[in-house]
Structures are given as C-alpha cells and as structure tokens.
Design brief:
By secondary structure, the protein is of the alpha/beta class. It is built from 12 helices and 10 strands. It folds into 2 domains: 162 residues, Bordetella uptake gene, domain 1 (D-Maltodextrin-Binding Protein, domain 2, 3-Layer(aba) Sandwich); 117 residues, D-Maltodextrin-Binding Protein, domain 2. The radius of gyration is 21 Å and the shape is globular.
Length: 325
C-alpha cells in the first residue's frame, strides 16, 4: 500500500515537475555566466573562447565572463568547474588537454573529466602549425627533425602547458619521427610564444589563432601544419605528412562542458545558443580566418568524440613513456 501511494504521489507530481523544468528553461539565464578557460590569456584557446563567448552571450541575453586559469596543465580549472553548482552558470572551455589527455598523463590526478562533466557541444576543430624563431636556421620541418636526430635531447620546445594540444602534438611528432626533444611547459600559448620569438626555445607546435599575426609580421616562421591537408590560411606551408611522415596528424578542438547533473533543458539552452552563435556570419568568418572549422555537435556526439580521443591519446602517452606528478 505504501509503495502504491508513493507511486501515485510521484505520478501526480510529474506535471508539476515538468512545469517547473519548462519554467526554468524559459527564465534561464537570469544572471552572468562564467566561462572557465584552462589556459592563460593570449593563446589560441583563449582567443576562440572569447569570440564564442560574445556570440553565446548575445544569444542568451547575458554576459559570459571569461576566467583564465592555466595552472597545472588546466587541471585546476577543470577541478574548479567540476565542483561548481550544476545550474548552468559555470561552463568549461573543453579541449583535449584537460579532458582526454591529462587523466593518462598526470599520475596524481583524481578527477575523471569524462564523468565529472556533461557535454554540451563540440564548437570547432583547427589544425596546428610548427613555428620557429624568425632567425632560426631551420627552414623546413625536415631540417628541424634532422637536427633533432643529430642532437638528441638538445632541442627545446614550448607548449601551452602539460597535456595541451601543443604539448601532445609534439609528443606525437617525437614518437612518429623517432626524435628526442625537451619539453618546456608554460601557462598558455602566449607566454610560450614569447620565448620562441626571443629564441629561448627552438620551436613550438601551436594553434593558428595564437600565431597567425606573428607569422604575418615575420616574428616567427612557419615550417609545417599538422593536418593531413594544407590550410587555406597558409597555402605555401607543407604538412608534416607530405614532408616525409605520412602517419602524422594532430589538431586542436574546442567545446563546452558543464558540471555533471546540470539539467538537460539548461544544457540544451546553452547548446542552442552556441550553435546559433558559431554559425552566424561574424563568428563563422572569424573562426575561419583563424583556421578553425565550426562544428556544433549534439551532446551525445561530443561525448562519443571525447571517449574516442581519450583512447587515442592514452595510446600515444603510453608509447611516449611520459607521466607527470
């Protein structure tokens, strides 16, 4: 009898629950949202985050305030976002480092991003580019790799942080080309590129948005792009694959995730605003101008994509034999 009464009470409450959810979806958001970016300001992830945040904020009718935190390879930012209230007012800018690489890279990392967050949408994908200082003796990726082979453990490269796209793309290059180069992690692509420009590090693989202006102003030189095909932004720059390493391919991707347990109707509101925002002419052209391809996936598609990426990078990290505390 008690179970029947509880069941009847639950069924009678369903219309009220549905009405409350509908009301939440209609009124959300009522205040400013924060968008946590797991890298320092000035890098490629930050650049894309700010462009998209503006568009999404316009669609939602509220501002998305960008908070940068590149500490611990983005792990601190991820932990901050994961422990936030699942109410739709905290969004994490997700990419491969914090989401699918760090769990395999950091031995002491307790957070599992794939279970700590709910996917919203995959925003965009972009190729990476290998750059060297303007006065570097290397004019091609083959020359760089030949020098690395002749001098194992001597060439240094910067990255946006441990586990970042720039870090892992170089780890993959080391594995595929059978070279040994020394990693120097930074808190974002901006500070890493400053040391490439000054010659403190010999090269860097980084996102196009973070470096196109430096290439145009000839402060750095582009040696190769990491995609299988050339990018229209740098049509004269060869790919690593066509330079002699056909098995090499790497890139960057960007998406939105929210703390696990965020109501589905709020996730859909954020996703809808994001997809509309990135498909608008202004953002689409801006992303395209920086080498990024807008996507706008469903949460289910983004979840499946991240699971596949996690498996891929687990294999790469194991093959490279690297781990961090």
């Amino acid at each position: 009898m008690i179970d029947r009464r509880r069941t009847l009470a639950f069924l009678m409450a369903l219309p009220a629950i549905a009405a409350a959810e509908a009301a939440t979806a209609q009124t959300y958001p009522t205040r400013v949202l924060r968008l946590i970016v797991p890298y320092a300001a000035g890098g490629g992830t930050d650049a894309i985050a700010r462009v998209v945040a503006q568009a999404v904020g316009d669609k939602l009718g509220q501002t998305l305030v960008v908070e940068n935190n590149g500490v611990g390879g983005g792990n601190v930012a991820s932990q901050t976002a994961a422990t936030a209230a699942p109410d739709g007012y905290t969004v994490l800018m997700a990419n491969q480092g914090p989401m699918v690489v760090n769990p395999h890279l950091f031995k002491t990392l307790k957070l599992d991003p794939l279970t700590a967050f709910d996917a919203v949408t995959l925003i965009a994908k972009a190729p990476l580019v290998i750059v060297v200082p303007a006065n570097s003796p290397f004019s091609s990726v083959k020359e760089l790799i030949d020098a690395a082979r002749a001098n194992p453990g001597k060439l240094t490269y910067g990255s946006a942080g441990n586990g970042s796209a720039s870090h892992l793309a170089t780890v993959l290059l080391n594995v595929v080309a059978k070279i040994d180069t020394v990693h120097v992690p930074y808190r974002g692509a901006g500070p890493a590129l400053n040391d490439v420009i000054s010659g403190q590090t010999q090269f860097m693989i980084t996102t196009l948005p973070s470096v196109t202006g430096l290439i145009d102003s000839k402060r750095v030189r582009a040696l190769a792009v990491t995609a299988k095909t050339r990018t229209p932004l740098l049509p004269d720059v060869a790919t690593v694959a066509e330079s002699g390493w056909p098995d090499y391919e790497a890139g960057a991707w960007y998406g939105f995730v929210v703390p696990r347990g965020t109501p589905p109707e709020i996730i859909e509101a954020i996703r809808k605003a994001t997809v509309e925002g990135i498909k608008g002419a202004l953002v689409r052209d801006r992303l395209g101008g920086e080498g990024a391809q807008p996507i706008g996936s469903t949460p289910q598609e983004f979840t499946a994509f991240m699971k596949d990426e996690s498996a891929r990078w687990a294999t790469t990290v194991k093959a490279a034999g690297i781990s961090l505390e």
